[in-house]
Write a structure and sequence with these properties.
The chain is an alpha+beta fold and 307 residues long. The protein has helices at residues 29-41, 47-65, 75-83, 99-112, 117-127, 131-142, 154-172, 275-280, 283-291, and strands spanning 2-4, 21-22, 193-201, 204-212, 218-220, 235-239, 251-256, 261-267, 295-296.
Length: 307
């Protein structure tokens, strides 16, 4: 594993300012993720698991296409959110329509047939839960209380919640979403990022966008800054190396000496990366940075912690 700092990026002058916020594309976000999971599964030691996650992503795509109309914030609510720099679809307080549980039922039914034996038992147990118990699991996901009893069920609940919030974020759009005072949380739903991606947007290259773990919205944050504590000093990058010593240059762990946290950063110019899929395909990198004393600052909701 290697660690190195990167030189500051000099902004490229452009006639058009790159967007601060990028809304998820409801037509492609989950289908492309499924394709990336399948690609990463080839020759991978965790290939069967990654392919199963691809099946979950495909089920999410189908559920999102069937998502009914949602009661989104009106102009008055949006005005208040902008004025007070609050997310318009706050994860912990936006009223959830029952449609999200319909998405959960559709996702679990779709993936049960291809699930491994252990997962089939979990899915059967989840199918036996009543609405009150399922909503309690949703509250735990949205408050990132992912450990303890029923932890193995959290990824399926989270997958359905991702469908709901992604659909809402896509329909709401981004034209009226303001930057928050806390740059490390999603300006659309207030949730934490799963990682960040370096991409070209319009005429500007090397832009870093944080990617929301819940609603798949992306928002711009300058390079060489910790997304957890907002400091610029002591930010370094660590990467996996193969047997020949070649570094994986499509994804690295961005670590912070100030708060001892890390989050992965992927590079779109290197591969057709997906922040969620590429994160789960590089769990060995999590182990390395964890052993070095860093704690992850944002969750991947498709992962069972400690599983």
């Amino acid at each position: 594993m290697s660690a190195s700092t990167q030189a500051p990026i000099i902004p490229i002058r452009s006639s058009s300012e790159p967007p601060h916020v990028i809304a998820p594309d409801a037509a492609t976000i989950f289908s492309r993720r499924a394709q990336r999971f399948d690609q990463l599964a080839e020759g991978h030691s965790l290939g069967d698991w990654l392919r199963f996650l691809g099946a979950i992503s495909r089920a999410q795509h189908e559920a999102l296409q069937s998502l009914p109309a949602l009661d989104l914030p009106g102009s008055a609510q949006m005005s208040v959110a902008r004025e007070h720099r609050m997310p318009p679809l706050p994860a912990q307080s936006w009223p959830r329509p029952v449609a999200w549980r319909e998405s959960l039922a559709a996702i679990t039914a779709a993936v049960t047939k291809c699930a491994p034996d252990v997962a089939q038992k979990d899915l059967a147990r989840l199918a036996g839960y009543d609405a009150e118990r399922i909503e309690a699991l949703a509250e735990r996901v949205l408050h990132t209380e992912l450990y303890g009893d029923d932890a193995a069920l959290m990824p399926y609940v989270a997958a359905a919640l991702q469908v709901l919030w992604t659909g809402a974020a896509a329909r709401l759009g981004v034209t009226e979403i303001a930057a928050l005072d806390v740059p490390g949380v999603c300006p659309c739903c207030g949730f934490l990022p799963v990682g960040s991606v370096i991409r070209t947007v319009g005429e500007v290259s090397n832009l870093r966008y944080l990617h929301c773990a819940l609603c798949n919205t992306e928002w711009n944050l300058v390079r060489l800054k910790c997304s957890a504590c907002d400091v610029t000093d002591g930010v370094t990058y660590r990467a996996l190396q193969d047997e020949s010593g070649k570094e994986n240059d499509s994804i690295r762990a961005e670590t912070c000496e100030s708060c001892k946290s890390y989050l992965k950063i992927s590079y779109a110019e290197k591969a057709a990366v997906d922040p969620v899929a590429d994160d789960l395909a590089t769990l060995a990198l999590d182990i390395l940075v964890d052993e070095a004393g860093y704690a992850r600052s944002g969750p991947n909701l498709l992962l069972v912690p400690g599983g």
